[in-house]
């Protein structure tokens, strides 16, 4: 049975009984919690950094009663989110819940999300009984004595008591549909039919996944050698301390590269969590094996940013880094193409221009793709062909539901960076009406600490009018405009000035959404925030707060405007999820608001709605594990 300990507001528990299971789970007493597995006690305050959480939680006790529970920033102790109940799993879970989980029956005992936080009124799914609504907690009297339980409501007013030692059978309902599902009928056949139908569908889906995996496993590629003697020297030039997740991802990528089949690894991480450094170390390893590296990015601005970063980190080593994008003249592009053909260029960073027919490599060994989902259909077809020839590393800051990828483990390798860098602060997020006085105050506050300000606008046609307004409000500020329709030379000059600190306020469109890293820019103002999607707002917010300074994001809506329901929900969601590493929660909210889209395909979407996302993933994981044990069924059609 799954081991865990639970805590909830109002719970009566002695300090001894609170700490005893944590110590048994392998947690360590420390003065201040900084890493997963730490526990600190100061009077009636207990800080716990669960091994599977992204931030610590703080329990405040009065005598033997828990008064409050909240997630905190481990450095500043700022409150990130408040909770009514949490479940803490053993430290060893991260090792137990590994690739073996797919083939293990007991893996179904493990919830997909270790952070379980139910609220009264939530729709939940019981594996055996279907969709219900959480009423609250109750005391259940049994022949063995009293035990605590969750109380769930079902159709026709029926109620179900779920003892807390069966909590792993219950998960919050997520269906990616704007309509709430009907409550299941206890004892009825409809739930069993829905679950059986979903399982039959995921068996077909699992066969497809395993078929793709088998084809890729049969390919043979280049096996990179162990780290060159210069690798350690290069890695020591990284100016920050690597997080545990970063180090794990780096080792996983290196191990893949040293294997004799082509790597195809997805590296997921929130904005500013250090994916680029993982890519840099992989690129250096490839170059030390006399292989060329192509870094493919969706925008010219991001190509320019990455080129600066790579050149700065590699300048002490004999590695030639070039860029290929529309920022360059035809003559400059021709020079880069010739260098690639001759092998004189080791690393090339560019947009989809790199996928053109005239691009020929001397000896390509590694392709790094930043935000693959932003490339077009034709580009993706080209990338599919590359996957059979060279090692591929895909970076994505776009939040993707990690539970799905855990369920699909084995169909594609994945690394997850969920640990925030040291001294990172949550970003203060404010929704406000568009008023001159407020904008003037926010900009001057940032300028007073020698910082820079992003002002993002939703359309090009009146962006210069907004810039003129800002020049009038803050005449001392150096204001410039950037957008994707500008002349290449002018755009390049503006972005260079912005990155070099020669511009105070950059009025821009969403072209800065991905990859732009300006540590001195820590105030973001989004004009007409109601016109942006949730994922866009989350990515834009990630442009600030990338350094040790406290950052602020102001989301503006027109004065007196009645927002649409969809816009109100988007803004409410971005306000609720300000914690470090909250990309997963934002992704789930985004999927609920927009629908699952092509995440699983239309056919699978109906089954997700019927049984809930978490149970669907459990069934899929079970189907993959079953077919791996029955290869003759995996090949059946």
Can you walk through the features of this model?
- This protein has 637 residues and is α/β, with parallel strands linked by helices.
- Strands 16-17-15-18-19-14-20 form a seven-stranded parallel β-sheet, with helices on both faces.
- The protein is globular, with a radius of gyration of 26 Å.
Rg, Å, rounded: 26 Å
Overall mean pLDDT: 81
Give the amount of beta strand, in percent: 15-25%
What structural class do the secondary elements suggest? alpha/beta
- Order of strands, main sheet, comes to 16-17-15-18-19-14-20
Identify the quaternary structure here.
Answer: single chain
Query: What is the global morphology?
Result: globular
The count of strands amounts to 26
End-to-end distance: 36 Å
| Main β sheet profile | 7 strands, parallel
Q: Report helical residue fraction.
A: 25-40%
Indicate the low-confidence ranges by residue numbers. Answer: 93-116, 399-410
* Individual helix count: 19
């Amino acid at each position: 049975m799954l081991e865990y300990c639970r805590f909830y507001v109002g719970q009566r528990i002695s300090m001894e009984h609170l700490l005893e299971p944590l110590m048994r789970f392998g947690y360590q007493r420390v003065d201040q919690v900084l890493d997963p597995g730490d526990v600190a006690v100061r009077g009636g305050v207990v800080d716990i950094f669960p091994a599977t959480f992204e931030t610590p939680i703080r329990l405040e006790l009065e005598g033997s009663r828990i008064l409050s529970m909240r997630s905190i920033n481990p450095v500043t102790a700022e409150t990130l989110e408040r909770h009514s109940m949490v479940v803490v799993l053993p430290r060893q879970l991260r090792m137990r819940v590994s690739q073996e989980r797919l083939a293990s029956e007991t893996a179904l005992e493990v919830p997909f999300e270790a952070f379980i936080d139910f609220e009264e009124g939530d729709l939940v799914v019981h594996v055996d009984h279907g969709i219900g609504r959480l009423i609250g907690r109750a005391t259940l009297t049994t022949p063995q004595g009293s035990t605590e339980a969750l109380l769930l409501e079902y159709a026709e007013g029926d109620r179900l008591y779920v003892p807390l030692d069966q909590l792993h059978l219950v998960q919050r309902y997520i269906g990616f549909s704007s309509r709430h599902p009907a409550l299941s009928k206890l004892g009825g056949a409809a739930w069993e039919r829905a679950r059986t139908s979903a399982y039959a569908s995921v068996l077909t889906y699992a066969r497809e996944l395993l078929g793709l995996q088998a084809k890729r496993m049969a390919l043979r590629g280049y096996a990179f050698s162990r780290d060159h003697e210069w690798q350690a020297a290069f890695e020591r030039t990284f100016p920050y301390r690597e997080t545990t997740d970063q180090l794990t991802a780096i080792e996983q990528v290196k191990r893949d590269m040293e294997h004799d089949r082509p790597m195809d690894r997805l590296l997921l991480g929130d904005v500013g969590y250090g994916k680029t450094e993982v890519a840099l170390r992989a690129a250096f390893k490839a170059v030390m094996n006399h292989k060329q590296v192509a870094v493919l990015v969706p925008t010219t601005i991001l190509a320019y940013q990455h080129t600066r970063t790579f050149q700065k980190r590699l300048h002490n080593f004999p590695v030639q880094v070039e860029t290929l994008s529309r920022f360059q003249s035809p003559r400059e592009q021709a020079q880069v193409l010739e260098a690639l053909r001759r092998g004189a260029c080791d690393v090339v960073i560019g947009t989809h221009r790199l996928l053109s027919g005239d691009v020929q490599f001397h000896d390509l060994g590694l392709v790094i793709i930043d935000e693959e989902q932003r490339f077009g259909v034709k580009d993706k077809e080209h990338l599919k062909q590359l996957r059979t020839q060279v090692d591929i590393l895909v970076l994505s800051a776009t939040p993707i539901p990690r539970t799905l990828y855990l369920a699909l483990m084995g169909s594609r390798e994945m690394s997850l960076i969920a640990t925030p860098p040291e001294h990172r602060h949550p970003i203060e997020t404010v929704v406000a009406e568009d008023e001159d006085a407020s904008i003037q105050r926010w900009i001057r506050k940032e300028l007073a600490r020698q910082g820079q300000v992003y002002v993002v606008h939703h359309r090009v046609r009146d962006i210069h009018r907004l810039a003129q307004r800002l020049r009038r409000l803050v005449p001392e500020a150096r204001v410039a405009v950037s957008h994707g329709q500008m002349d290449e030379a002018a755009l390049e000059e503006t972005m260079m000035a912005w990155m070099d600190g020669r511009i105070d306020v950059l009025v821009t469109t969403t072209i800065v959404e991905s990859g732009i890293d300006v540590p001195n820019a820590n105030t973001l103002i989004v004009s007409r925030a109601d016109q942006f999607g949730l994922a866009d707002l989350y990515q834009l917010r990630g442009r600030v707060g990338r350094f040790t300074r406290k950052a602020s994001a102001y989301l503006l809506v027109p004065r007196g405007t009645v927002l649409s329901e969809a816009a109100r929900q988007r803004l409410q969601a971005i306000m609720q999820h300000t914690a470090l590493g909250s990309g997963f929660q934002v992704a789930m909210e985004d999927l609920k608001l927009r629908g699952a889209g092509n995440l699983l395909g239309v056919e699978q979407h109906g089954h997700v709605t019927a049984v809930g996302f978490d149970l669907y993933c459990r069934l899929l994981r079970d189907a993959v594990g079953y077919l791996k044990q029955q290869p003759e069924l995996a090949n059946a059609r």
